[in-house]
Amino acid sequence: MELGVFIFDTDYSMSIEELARALEDRGFASLFVPEHTHIPVSRKSPWPGGGDLPKEYAHTLDPFISLSFAAAATTNLKLGTGISLIPQRDPIVTAKVVASLDMMSKGRITLGIGGGWNIEEMESHGATYKTRFKLMRERVLAMKALWTEEEASFDGEMVKFEKSWSWPKPLQKPHPPVILGGETKYTLQRVAEYGDGWLPRVTPNFDPEKDMARLREAADEAGRDFKELSVTLFRAPADAQQLEACQQAGIHGGLFQLPSADRDTILPMLDDYAKLLT
Question: Is 219 left (phi over 0), alpha (psi -120 to 50) or beta?
């Protein structure tokens, strides 16, 4: 398995450049960062994790700027969003950002995406909770058109633009992988329809064999080759036996969680996680 980490990169955590170099030096495969543009103080939407919303959610840096600094500090480390809130992002601008970063990093970008849970946050961007997944689908398909077509256009219900030129094109062909977060059957249907991989959270109910079978079933129903779809575990277990079971089930990679903390906290954690690299 390819093992990496994810961290809420904030204005008070370890420098992303130093973290990226430390990961590459230790042999980790990847670095992923989440996204929240802002957190409305009304806090009407409960945090899915339960209890008070952790501090880092309101302090996250822009993920693509963070990943740009990480890319400049490394050579081989793969870089991704985990996750980018596509219903809150203009698809033309985001396609340009992702393509530029993929080109400049020499093809190291993965776009992890999701619909989001914070209703007030997405409404500030003009998105609606009930239609966020329809919007996400159209925006992903529109971005794929911009990445792969010389004269791209899109005529959807929620996304429309006339024939347009948009360069650079991503270095990865046909485009950087788009992987979807979530665990429901609807997530798996979306992965099979327009995604390139699945980014499930490891919960107490996660079962490597059963969940891979769920993905295979969704792929079969969509007429998709199951082997085309990657699977990367978000919040991967830091346990050798569990990781071995995941690998045996066909899971490709995993992301260990790091706190938004200083280097004195994070570097020893990297050393411990590194013992699980194979």
Answer: alpha
State the Cα–Cα distance between residues 53 and 108, nearest whole angstrom.
Answer: 31
Q: Are strands 160-164 and 152-155 parallel, antiparallel or unpaired?
A: antiparallel
Distance of CA 2 to the CA centre of its chain: 15
Partners of 28 in beta bridges:
none
Neighbours of 159 (CB within 10 A): 19
Mean pLDDT of 260-278: 96
Angle between helices 208-222 and 240-248 (to 10 degrees): 30
- Pair 189, 218: CB distance under 8 Å: yes
pLDDT tens-digit series, residues 197-236 = 999 999 998 999 999 999 999 999 999 999 999 999 999 9
Q: Which residues contact 207 (CB under 8 A, 6 or more apart)?
A: none
